[in-house]
Structure formats: C-alpha cells, structure tokens
C-alpha cells in the first residue's frame, strides 16, 4: 500500500514534462503580464512551494515529522539579511561576491543546512513523537534567543534589508530556485537515496536489518530539507526587505507548510504543488471572508484531511481516477 | 551579586510553581502512558482552562478556585469530545496522524481564543483573608502557597484514583496491555475517553491555577506544552513521584535562570533542560518511559 | 439446547476469506476440542465468538441469544471468558492484581473466585505478590487461565493453552482444564496437541483450511487416522 503511494507523484510521461515547462514559463512571465499584486501572490506561492517541497521530503518521504521547520526558514532569512545588509547587525562590511543577493540566497540555504548538520545527529536520537516535540523545542529556543539578541536580529523592531536587486529580478530568481528545488527533490526521491528514505519511513528496524543506516538517510533528508527551507526564507527576506524574529521564525510558517503538504498529499512529488495552489486560494479567500478565523479553518482542514483523506487531495484524486478505470475495466470484462 | 535571601526566595517560588507544572504534566503523562499519543494540544487545553477561570472571575466575580472546578468540568467534556470525534479515528494509525490531528486541534484552540477572547494577557486574582507564610528569609505568598497545595492535592487524588479504584485499575491495565484488557471485559474505548477527559481536566486545573500567578494569553499553549512534556521526560512516563519531582526541578531551574540571566531566558532554560534530558536519559529520572520508542 | 451454537460462519481478514461455512455446537457442561494444524483458522473462530472479530456471515447463538456482533467486553459480561493465545497478561502488575482484573465485570464474588483459582493453581497463591512478567511460561499460562476463571464464566474459551510448555506442565494444564470442567464450567478448547485434547474432551471437531472436516466423540476421533492426516499437507 505504502509503496504504491510513493509512485503516484512520478511524472512518467512526456506530457507531464511539457505541462511542467508550461507552468514554469507561465510563472516566469507573471510580472510582465499581470499587476504587482499578482506578482506578490505568485512570490508568496513560490516561498510556500519551497517550504512544502522541503517538509515533504523530510516528513512525507523519510517519515520524520518536524514541527520546527520555521527555524530553518528564519535562519535562511537572517543569513541573507546579514550578508546583504551587515551594517544593520553591526557586522563589518561583507566583500562583494558574498554580499550579492544571489550568493546570499544560496548561503541562506547553506546556513540553515549547517544548523541541521550540527543539530541533526542530536535530534535524531529522538524518534516519532519525541522527534516532533524536540524540533518544536529547538525552534522555540532559536526564536527566543534571536528575539533576545536585538543587536543581530533587530528584535521586535525588525531588520531592514538593503539588497538592491529590484522586485522583478528577485521574483525571477525565486522562480528558478523553486523550480530547481522541486526538480532536485524529485530526482532525490527517485534515486537510491530516496529509496533508503522510504525504507526507513516504512519500517526503520527492518530497513536497518537490510543494511540501510537510518541515521544516514535521515540526515540526508534533514540537510536537503533544511537547505531548501533556508532558500525559501532567504527568498522571502530578499523580497520583503524587512524581517523580524516573529515574522520569520513563528510557528505559523510551520503550520502553513503542514497544511500545504497534507492538503496536497504527503509523500508525493506533486502533492506540494497541488497543496500550494489550493492553499493560496483558500488562504486568500478565507482571510477576506473570515478575517481572524482563517487559522481555525486551516486547523480544521488539517484535521479533516488527515482523518478522511490521508493521501491528500492529489493522492485521493489519483486513487479515485485509478479506481474508476479499474471498475470500468471490470464492467467491460464482466 | 545575588543575595542568598533572594536566591532562597527564588528557589522557594520555583518549588511552589513546580507543583502546578507537575499537575499539568500528569495529564499529559496519563494520556501518553495509556494511548501512546503525545497530546500536542495539551498546552492549549491548559490555556482554555485558564480562560474558563478568567471569564468566570471577570464576568461573575467568581473565585478562581471555584473557576478551577468549572474549568475541570468543561475540559473533561472537551477531552471526551476530542477523543470521540477525532482521536478515536487515528489513535491506532501510527504516529503521523495523531500528531497532525492534535496539531490542528491546538491551532483551532489558539485561533479561537485569540478571536473571541482577544490577544491581551489576562489573569485572575485569589483573594484570601490570609497572609503569606513567613519563614525568615523566605516569604511564601498566599497565592503561590494555595495554588501549590491545590495542585499537589489534585496530583495525590489522581494517584489515589488510579491506585485504589477499579476504574483506576482498568486504566492501568489498559495501558499495559490493551488486548488483554478487552479479554477481561474492560471497555477500552471508554477507558480511552475517560483518560482523555481526566488528562484534559488536569490541564484545565493547572491553567486555572496558573492564571492566579501569571497572565494567560492565547499564545501560551506551545510553551506550556513543552514545559509539561519536559516534566514528563524528567520524571519518566507513568511515575507520579517522578512527575512531582520533575515539576519542582523545572520550576526551580526556570526561576533561578530568570534571576541570573533575565526573564527572557526562562523558557530557553526550560527547553534546553527538556532537550538535554530527552537526549541523555530518555527513560526519565524515575520512570520507565522511553524516548527511543 | 446447546449453550453455544455456531451456524454457517464465514470470516475474512480484509479481502482474505479464512473461515468457510463452519457449523458446530457446544452443550452446557461439555468439554469440546477444536483441532487443526497451524493456520487452519482455529484462533480466528475463537476471536469471532468472543467478539474481537466480526464474521462476514453466519450466526453465533449463546444461551439462546445471538451474540454475532457482540463487543468483547460484552461477551465477558454474558459469561464467556477467552484465554488468548500467547497469554496476554498484565506484565507490570502483580499476580493478584491480574486475577482481580479478571473479575472486572464480576466483582461481587471476588473472594470466592480467588479461592477457587488458588485451589486449582496453588502456585499462583505462592506467587501472588510477584510481578506477572517475572513468572515462568507455565505459570503465566496458569495465570491467564486463572484470570479467565475470575469472571466466573459459563463458557471458557482456551486458545492453545499448552503451546510452548514443558511436558510436565502440559499435563498440569490439562489436569486443571479437567477440574475446571468438573466444577461446572463448559470448556471449548483450541489445540494442536490432538492427543491431550482428546483425552480431556467429550467431543471434537477437526478444522482444515477454514472448513470443518470431521467431527465426533473424543473416542471416535482418537481412533480415526484422518485426524492425524489432516495435520499433514493440504
């Protein structure tokens, strides 16, 4: 059952590749053919897509439920801020290639991955519920410390970036990075590496019996996941040009990420894509209709989808279509 | 330099606070021990309990101690409803589903609290005709003393219930072996419901007691979840004495940290202790629960 | 009228159909054995009777009332005690607490029933204060049977009571089963050990691949070569 679920997201036909290219092209022309408002929405969607892709790799494929993903997002944002605008943190001037927004964006991901590298071996001594709560605690510690260290984080007043790349180039850069992240994760989950991750997800004990070292695969998933979440945070910072510990490290980022992946379908490549689109529609629609109660509806969506559509919208759609074909076959043959 | 008197006062306040932490943790421990689910909404249930007391206090002028009883009743019902409506469907479905469902529940409670009760912190006040207990260098304030006593009393009552009633025995039997419990005629679905109800009621009681000492706002849930879980981890799952000692250790460590490093490091210390114990001694200082499970 | 009457029973695990059109009955006061090789479906039938599994089809009538869709805890209340395979004791509780939990649905006569169990299994009285998890395999089996008796059942369902026990203990267990039956409890036992089972049973049924293959009195079955044969090959 479980293994079937994972194959659902694999684009097997040329049609899927073509469709992906069309979507990519459409995303690239958004700022030239629509208003800044829609470009802003598309930008937000790209940030969420990266977060979703990132969390999906760790939770959906490797089976490690992290509730502290906001930490990597926030760290990526701050690394980009420190590199492009060191003066605001009282840091000395950063030499050219490092201070360039594109480099800062990549280093935002690297910074988050480094934190994952250091904390991973410790966090993965925890399993299941303990890992989930451990990541929640880790993220809380990072947020509290950064909030307290006003000199480097700007505290609650916040941190203004002076990246000077312009809105449209930042957007285009984000499109490219998000596409690379999605394709990258697709390649990972269909490689031996991805196979190992799924093996520890399904049954860690059995996997290690077969010679799969669980820690190694969890670490790969954690590092790649943190890297992409860091990229998302850096892109967010470079675009909004203003961050503070709450706006980048708060649990809401984790929440939205979970909603996206769960809605779309955990453990499928297409899940986060579907989830992001549906989430953007719901989020914007909900906020305008419900105002302050949008989070409640998000919570209810998580609950209902987990209970009634455990494979997510994409997964369920896929099984529905498959099931219908099957019954059609049965009807014609019977 | 911090004076010895101030340190002694800080420690004694920490010990008294620890009693409430133990009460909050007991509910979490009970649910974890029996259903093998970490109630991610536990801190938010505690927050709701605090608000029940706050609303009754500000609207009706009811003493928060009476409010606490009302909070326990309300939370007991909420716990049962949560189990019946949601958890029952996912509790045996591995770990991902319960984690995610409870995470969703926590979000709903937080957002509803924020929307209907406002984001401002509120509190209750315990008015008693008694003064504090003066122990020379240390003064035990009436509200801290009373909340501690009530909290420990509730912990002891829960222990008596588990130890000396047949329903208590059935709960413990279910936590040891659910299949066997069904074979001897225990309705384990009912036991799960009861456990969720009692666990939530204990969280509610802790929330009401905390509202007499600290302001409560809709965002305190995560922090109290982590604190409660830290105590469970310190004391070990299923050990009542361990839970009490764990609560006292945490309360003291927090207060002493705040004294030396400043209030903003209170929670940093809590979560650090939590992570350290989880990593170094996952079975807890007293119990048999396992972080590796 | 039979105490337990099972007709046309069909049971499946998901899509896998394991029990087919099974009919049998147990009269009050009898000891009846259900024999069959490993995997024949014996445990499935017991679990269906006591409500852990629901049948696809068929009727289970106990004491004149249908218990086809009963919950396990309700079955205990009606007087059916199931001693499961693999013992399933409360390992962290004392022996005495395990027995007391057996009387969960029938606490009234706890003292008497405890005495009766101690009389049948004196070893349990000696070990009353010990943690059940520290008992030997044979003692755990006695505890599981004793715990089943604590509800004062009219019908005792025993699943592989002798499995994995040393020969001396096997004799003890079968002797205990005989005494339990003599004291008025109807016994339905599932066994791989044909010889011992037919020694204590009045009648028996032989299950093969989910269907009843043979039935008869214990003497008839003991002398029937087909019983042994049903254990070998499909």
UniProtKB/TrEMBL annotation, chain A:
GO terms for cellular component: plasma membrane. CDD domains: TM_PBP1_LivM_like (cd06581). It is found in: Cell membrane. It holds the Pfam family BPD_transp_2. It comes from the Archaea. Its main location: membrane. It is a multi-pass membrane protein. One of its GO terms (molecular function) is branched-chain amino acid transmembrane transporter activity. Keywords: Cell membrane, Membrane, Transmembrane, Transmembrane helix. The chain crosses the membrane at residues 16-34, 40-58, 70-94, 100-118, 130-146, 168-189, 220-238, 258-282, 289-309. PANTHER family: HIGH-AFFINITY BRANCHED-CHAIN AMINO ACID TRANSPORT PROTEIN BRAE, HIGH-AFFINITY BRANCHED-CHAIN AMINO ACID TRANSPORT SYSTEM PERMEASE. This is Branched-chain amino acid ABC transporter permease. It comes from Halarchaeum nitratireducens.
TrEMBL record, chain B:
One of its GO terms (biological process) is amino acid transport. It comes from the Archaea. It is found in: Cell membrane. The chain crosses the membrane at residues 20-38, 45-62, 68-87, 99-117, 145-162, 191-216, 228-251, 258-280. It comes from Halarchaeum nitratireducens. Belongs to the binding-protein-dependent transport system permease family. LivHM subfamily. Pfam families: BPD_transp_2 (PF02653). Its main location: membrane. Keywords: Amino-acid transport, Cell membrane, Membrane, Transmembrane, Transmembrane helix, Transport. It is a multi-pass membrane protein. This is Branched-chain amino acid ABC transporter permease. One of its GO terms (molecular function) is transmembrane transporter activity. One of its GO terms (cellular component) is plasma membrane.
From TrEMBL, chain C:
This is ABC transporter ATP-binding protein. InterPro entries: AAA+_ATPase, ABC_transporter-like_ATP-bd, ABC_transporter-like_CS, BCAA_Transport_ATP-bd_LivF, P-loop_NTPase. GO terms for molecular function: ATP binding; ATP hydrolysis activity; branched-chain amino acid transmembrane transporter activity. Belongs to the ABC transporter superfamily. Residues 4-234 form the ABC transporter domain. PANTHER family: HIGH-AFFINITY BRANCHED-CHAIN AMINO ACID TRANSPORT ATP-BINDING PROTEIN LIVF (PTHR43820). Keywords: Amino-acid transport, ATP-binding, Nucleotide-binding, Transport. GO terms for biological process: L-amino acid transport. PROSITE patterns: ABC_TRANSPORTER_1, ABC_TRANSPORTER_2. Gene3D superfamilies: P-loop containing nucleotide triphosphate hydrolases (3.40.50.300).
């Amino acid at each position: 059952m479980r293994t079937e679920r994972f194959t659902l997201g694999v684009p097997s036909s040329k049609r899927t590749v073509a469709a992906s290219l069309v979507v990519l092209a459409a995303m690239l022309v958004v700022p030239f053919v629509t208003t800044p408002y829609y470009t802003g929405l598309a930008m937000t969607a790209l940030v969420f897509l990266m977060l979703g892709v990132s969390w999906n790799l760790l939770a959906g494929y490797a089976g490690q439920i992290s509730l502290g993903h906001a930490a990597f997002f926030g760290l990526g944002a701050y690394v980009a801020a420190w590199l492009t605008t060191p003066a605001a943190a009282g840091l000395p001037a950063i030499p050219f290639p490092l201070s360039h927004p594109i480099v800062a964006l990549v280093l935002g991901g690297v910074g988050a991955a480094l934190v994952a590298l250091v904390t991973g071996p410790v966090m993965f001594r925890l399993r299941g519920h303990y890992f989930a709560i451990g990541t929640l605690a880790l993220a809380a510690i990072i947020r509290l410390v950064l909030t307290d260290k006003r000199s480097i984080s700007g505290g609650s007043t916040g941190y203004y970036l002076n990246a000077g790349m312009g809105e449209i180039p930042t957007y285009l850069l984000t499109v490219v990075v998000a596409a690379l992240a999605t394709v990258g994760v697709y390649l990972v989950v269909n490689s031996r590496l991805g196979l190992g991750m799924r093996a520890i997800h399904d049954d860690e004990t059995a996997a290690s019996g077969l010679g799969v070292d669980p820690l190694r695969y969890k670490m790969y998933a954690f590092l790649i996941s943190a890297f992409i979440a860091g990229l998302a945070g850096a892109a967010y910072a470079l675009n909004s040009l203003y961050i503070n510990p709450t706006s980048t490290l708060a649990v809401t980022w984790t929440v939205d990420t979970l909603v996206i992946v769960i809605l779309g379908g955990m453990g499928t490549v297409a899940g986060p894509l579907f989830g992001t689109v549906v989430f953007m529609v719901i989020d914007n629609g909900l906020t305008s209709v419900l105002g302050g109660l949008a989070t409640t509806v998000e919570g209810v969506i998580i609950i209902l989808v987990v209970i009634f559509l455990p494979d997510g919208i994409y997964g369920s759609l896929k099984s529905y279509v498959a099931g219908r074909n099957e019954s059609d076959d049965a009807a014609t043959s019977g | 330099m911090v004076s010895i008197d101030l340190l002694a006062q800080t420690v004694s306040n920490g010990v008294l606070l620890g009693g409430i932490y133990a009460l909050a943790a007991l509910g979490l421990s009970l649910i974890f021990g029996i259903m093998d689910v970490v109630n991610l909404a536990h801190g938010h249930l505690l927050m709701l309990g605090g608000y029940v007391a706050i609303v009754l206090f500000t609207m009706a002028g009811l003493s928060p101690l009476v409010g606490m009883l009302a909070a326990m009743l309300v939370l007991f019902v909420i716990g049962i409803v949560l189990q019946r409506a949601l958890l029952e469907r996912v509790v045996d479905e591995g770990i991902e589903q319960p984690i995610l469902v409870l995470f969703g529940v926590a979000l709903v409670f937080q957002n509803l609290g924020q929307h209907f009760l406002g984001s401002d912190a509120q509190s209750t006040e315990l008015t008693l005709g008694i003064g504090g207990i003066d122990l020379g260098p240390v003064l035990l304030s009436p509200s801290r003393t009373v909340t501690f006593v009530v909290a420990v009393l509730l912990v002891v009552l829960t222990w008596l219930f588990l130890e000396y009633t047949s329903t208590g025995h059935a709960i413990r039997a279910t936590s040891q072996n659910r299949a066997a419990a069904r074979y001897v005629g225990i309705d384990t679905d009912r036991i799960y419901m009861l456990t969720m109800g009692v666990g939530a009621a204990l969280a509610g009681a802790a929330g009401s007691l905390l509202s007499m000492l600290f302001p409560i706002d809709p965002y305190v849930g995560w922090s109290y979840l982590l604190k409660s879980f830290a105590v469970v981890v310190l004391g070990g799952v299923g050990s009542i004495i361990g839970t009490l000692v764990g609560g006292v250790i945490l309360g003291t460590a927090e207060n002493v940290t705040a004294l030396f490093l400043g209030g903003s490091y209170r929670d940093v210390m809590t979560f650090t202790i939590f992570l350290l114990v989880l990593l170094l001694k996952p079975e807890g200082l007293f119990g048999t629960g396992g972080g590796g499970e | 009228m039979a105490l337990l009457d099972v007709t046309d029973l069909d049971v499946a695990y998901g899509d896998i159909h394991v029990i087919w059109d099974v009919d049998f009955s147990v009269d009050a006061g009898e000891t009846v054995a259900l024999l069959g090789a490993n995997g024949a479906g014996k445990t499935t039938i017991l679990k269906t009777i006591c409500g852990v599994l629901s049948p696809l089809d068929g009727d289970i009538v106990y004491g004149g009332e249908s218990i086809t869709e009963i919950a396990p805890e309700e079955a205990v209340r009606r007087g059916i005690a199931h001693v499961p395979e693999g013992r399933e004791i409360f390992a962290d509780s004392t022996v005495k607490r395990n027995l007391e939990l057996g009387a969960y649905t029938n606490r009234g006569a706890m003292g008497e029933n405890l005495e009766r169990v101690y009389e049948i299994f004196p070893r349990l009285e000696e070990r009353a204060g010990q943690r059940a998890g520290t008992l030997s395999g044979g003692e755990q089996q006695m505890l599981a049977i004793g715990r089943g008796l604590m509800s004062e059942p009219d019908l005792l369902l025993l699943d592989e009571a002798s499995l994995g026990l040393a020969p001396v203990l096997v004799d003890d267990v079968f002797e205990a089963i005989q005494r339990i039956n003599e004291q008025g409890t109807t016994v339905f036992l599932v066994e791989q050990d044909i010889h011992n089972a037919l020694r204590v049973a009045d009648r028996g049924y032989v299950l093969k691949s989910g269907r009843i293959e043979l039935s008869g009195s214990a003497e008839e079955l003991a002398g029937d070569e087909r019983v042994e044969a049903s254990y070998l090959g499909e």
